[in-house]
Amino acid sequence: MSKQKSVRRFTGYHATTIIVAFFAVVVGVNMVMARFALSTFGGTVVDNSYVASQKYNEWLKQARDQRAHGWAVSPVQRSDDRAMVHITDAGGNALRGAHLVAVAEHPVGRTEPFDITFAERQPGEYRSVQAIPDGRWKLKLVISQADKSLRVLQDIQ
């Protein structure tokens, strides 16, 4: 005697189960990806790109004027929990008596930006008065002396 194989029929129940499972996976993946996208969104660079484009030539002029000062700014370093920066003038001498302020921003906007002031420790060496929390930060430095100013954007880790 031979055994007969029983053939299972593909019913409407099976088709429904497959379709529902497929769309459940698609919707589940979409929900996870949307959550990741929203939780890591750091905001916009500019609120209105058209208005920013109108100011572009002005920004280029400011950059040329700042470059004409000849100031050189070292990369910002972390010293203990403070930021340190060295600045030299066009002749390579330490820039003395400059006024430095900065805004520290988290790169992805997870915390509110905060202001930092700097004090000159030695000629051309400036150290932040406020502590900088651990992690990566973007510092928007404004260096001014007499009627000259320089804006610098640097990262500190």
Structure description:
The model has no long low-confidence stretch (mean pLDDT 88). Strand 4 (99-105) and strand 5 form a beta hairpin. With 157 residues, the protein is of the alpha+beta class. It is built from three helices and eight strands.
Q: How would you summarize this macromolecular structure in one to three sentences?
A:
With 157 residues, the chain is an alpha+beta fold.
For the sheet with most strands, the description reads:
8 strands, antiparallel
Strand-pairing-aware structural class: alpha+beta
Q: How far apart are the termini?
A: 79 Å
- Computed over alpha carbons, the radius of gyration is 29 Å
The residue fraction in helices comes out at: 25-40%
Spans where pLDDT lies below 50 across 5 or more residues: none
List the main descriptive attributes of the protein structure presented here.
157 residues, alpha+beta, 3 helices, 32% strand, elongated
Question: How are the elements arranged and paired?
Answer:
Layout: H1 12-40, H2 49-54, H3 56-69, E1 72-73, E2 77-79, E3 82-88, E4 99-105, E5 114-122, E6 125-128, E7 137-145, E8 148-156
